[in-house]
User: Fold this.
Amino acid sequence: MDLDTLLNKNQKEAATYLDSHLRIIAGAGSGKTRVVTYRIAHLIQDVGIDPRSILAITFTNKAANEMKERVNEVVGIHGSGTLICTIHSLCVRFLRQHINVLNYPSNFTIMDEEDQKALIKKLYTQLEIDAKVISIKSMINTISSYKTARVSPQRAIELAGQFSGELKKAKVYEAYENYKEDHFLLDFDDLLLKAVYILDNYPDILEKWQRKFQYIHVDEFQDVGEIEYHLVQLLSKYAIVCVVGDPDQTIYSFRGADVHFILDFDKDFKPNKTIILDQNYRSTGNILKVSNNLIRKNSQRLEKNLFTKQTGGEDVIHHVAKSEEEEANWIANKIEDIVNNQDGVNYRDIAILYRANYLSRTIEQVLIRKGIDYRIFGGLKFFNRKEVKDALSYLRLVCNQEDLAFERIINTPARGIGKKTLENIQLVALNHQISLYDALTLHSDEIRLSNKSKKEVRILVEAIEKARRSTLPLHEMFEQLMIDVGYIDMLKNDLEDNRIDNIHELQRSIYDFQVSHEDAPTLENYLQDISLYTDNDSIDQGQYVSLMSIHMAKGLEFDYVFVLGLSEGIFPSFRSLAEDGDDGLEEERRLAYVAFTRARKQLFLTDSEGFSFVTDSPKISSRFIDEVGNEGIIHSGSKPRFKTTDYVPKQTVSKAELIGDNKVDDWKVGDLVNHDIFGKGVVVKVNKNILDIAFELPAGLKSLMANHKALKKLTN
Ligand SMILES: Nc1ncnc2c1ncn2[C@@H]1O[C@H](COP(=O)(O)OP(=O)(O)OP(=O)(O)O)[C@@H](O)[C@H]1O
Assistant:
């Protein structure tokens, strides 16, 4: 293996330095993964280290598999036995051997989040706790916080003292832990905690595992948390540890990752050396320029000067579309253009990335319409998501009392209608040859329901009937329906922000449908239109565009990358800013940096005008676009508007800025307005003499008469 031809000088030093612990701090695309791979190969092939004494911890299973493959390619069969896996897999492997010391069998069961939810629901019934008072999701978070802070259930009960809410949670925690122990179950936290507990308390097992590894590598070290760090410390007594990371790519702080572990590595692991890799091999000069300019705006960072020898390259393109639909169309057209006109490029070289999963909806619909196959990594296609299916079922019930829709939603949210009651309703429907909904409403006397269920059913039926009679525009009827049937409350109680965003995105889809089908914007037509997307099971031809959230894209690379939805409030996310202020903003910026640096040949950034149902405000371009400067980037489409510049005038509007007379045919989408009561807004739809205007919160979206005196057009 000739490392001189495979690696640059610093990379080679990093791959071959074995005299002490090693920290490799490296920018995006500078060959971190490549260096770890060749370091392992070097240890086996050139140094003759027993492969079984080499450990490499990666962040995802995908990364582990890729690294294994690459090591095998280089060293062949000699590499077998090297342990390359995620930290959770390492713990499972460890526990299967040693958990018997805690009186667990080695074939314990691992619980995922769905299992956790089911268990907590069960415990709530036993302990008579209402999920509306303590949501299941918040309970899962509480349990996880107790555990990672190493607070035992007994201690939690003591700490809760007389505070009844806290005491209830502590009791659930106790019952949860007891149940798991009785049934030999482990949740994800337990995998790490139990492994660390055994290593901390059983010196002979610790010694055995410490003697196992001579060389330990940890990739993506910027995203480790306290327990992972402790585990690496424990295992490293006789080993040389090599950690690799990029502090600018810390994107999991919300899950306990702490960038200080890589920054302070030199204090705990002695002696040590740090090597910095600053040559980027992945991206063109322009992609790098734009990414560097952005990340420089973060104040909490180690300055690195990432460079590339691939100067220039295609400009980064930022496109502002008139609407989300147009944004998606622009992306799809560009993709077709690239695939048709660039030699050897196919769909698999292209990725579409977004900040939040709900943002995939519009682009999915456009790709389906154009017959471009796509895959969503780490998630479900929009119309397959549970909450979207539930919401559409409610609409189907409003539209035509469909039985399948009825069955899907009758007990979501819970109305005390279980399998038996449903069978009872089905029988009544069969006897009378009517729909399930009619059976429930017209023959309720034949159905056995508790008083509580009767009340819940009444609320449901009233909500459905109200929606049927509604004269509101469809998207408003839908919004009201989701509130009236208790669906939004259910999601709020369960702290399911992402699912709520998907419901708002579905509302946007209904709104868009009305705008484009002014002639017959009926619910029936909408449902028919949408079935094209819900029944879409494309045949896998192996050629697909990859769609994923930026968190999922960590460590990956693609020739062409589109990052969509770059609107202020969406990316950076308003929630991160509200919850974590400047720290939240810096993490969002790192996320944008990760997204931009996934691109090899060309990067496209898009956003659109109009109104966001998720942030409930008019859309303007993300500050990140403003921050990347003007070098290496060109703008197309509408002129980007930023919060700091021309969008919201700081002073009150002067008379001269106002156009006095609002002639009806003067209006167009994108016009800025000032309204005497609602303040400033932007026109999102012109419908003869009625304007849909998106105002800043709290006013939101309003339909107003174009020539009303309260409304003034502002000069653009
Ligand atoms: N010395 C080199 N010669 C040629 N190609 C290289 C070299 N070093 C890295 N590369 C290539 O550059 C790209 C980025 O490398 P790699 O994925 O290892 O970077 P990374 O630092 O792990 O990236 P990130 O942290 O952004 O995910 C890969 O395609 C890799 O093959």
Observations:
- Residues 60 and 86 are 6 Å apart (CA to CA).
- Residues 645-662 have pLDDT under 50 and may be disordered.
- The pocket of adenosine-5'-triphosphate is lined by residues 7-8, 11, 26, 28-34, 246, 249, 281-282, 555, 557, 597 (CB under 6 Å).
